[in-house]
Amino acid sequence: xxxxxxxxxxxxxxxxxxxxxxxxxxxxxxxxxxxxxxxxxxxxxxxxxxxxxxxxxxxxxxxxxxxxxxxxxxxxxxxxxxxxxxxxxxxxxxxxxxxxxxxxxxxxxxx
Length: 111
Known about the structure:
Elements: E1 2-10, H1 15-30, E2 34-41, E3 48-54, H2 57-65, H3 67-74, E4 80-89
Antiparallel strand pairs: 1-3, 1-4, 2-3
Helix pairs in contact: 1-3
């Protein structure tokens, strides 16, 4: 399993941003291998993190190559005041059952 974390500082969002964002979200959800996503915001520094989960690196790369994703990436300076992307391989997930999360425990030592 892989995660792609998109961390950014937002500027002003306009209608074009929201249109592209919704189109990219729909494209991601339609791709085989998409497992889910979540968003986190750090009130201390104002950064936002969107975390997307994929069952394979090939699935994640399909979104990266998607034409609408490429269009948004080319125009990101219109809406963002900086960004960083972190691609990670998820070795395992674990925890108790009190938090409902899209990722079930997996991998060696999962409990």
